[in-house]
Amino acid sequence: MKTENELTPKQWQLANAMSAISEECYAAGWLSGLEYTLWRFITYEESDARWGWSTIETARLDNLRTLALDIGGWIVWDDDLGEVFLTFDEWKQKHQMDNKFGDWPWRMIRGDQ
Q1: What is the pLDDT of residue 113?
Q2: Which pairs with CB-CB distance under 8 Å and at least 24 residues apart come from 23-31?
Q3: Which of 38, 48, 68, 107 could cross-link to 43 by cystine, CB 3.0-4.6 Å?
């Protein structure tokens, strides 16, 4: 885990892209659960995703997916630390512990299950 002050430029790029979507769709810098919603979109949506007041275009979802693959992980919000980078393994563990979507199955963007 890397905290906000330790993020690399590419990790910041992903964090900022995620935050920009939150801002456009809900006028919130980081809407609660943003990381889970965007993960669902990049792993299950094949086209534009309607969310809040806006539509997230496929190209933007592809960009999030590409950035995540490039950095080998995902950005999450921590109430004490702000934006935090988690490796895919750390994210998978957090995702499964939080279980935000009930029976929604875990799916990796790298192709592993």
Answers
A1: 43
A2: 24/53, 24/54, 25/51, 25/52, 25/53, 25/54, 25/56, 26/52, 26/53, 27/53, 30/77, 30/83
A3: 107
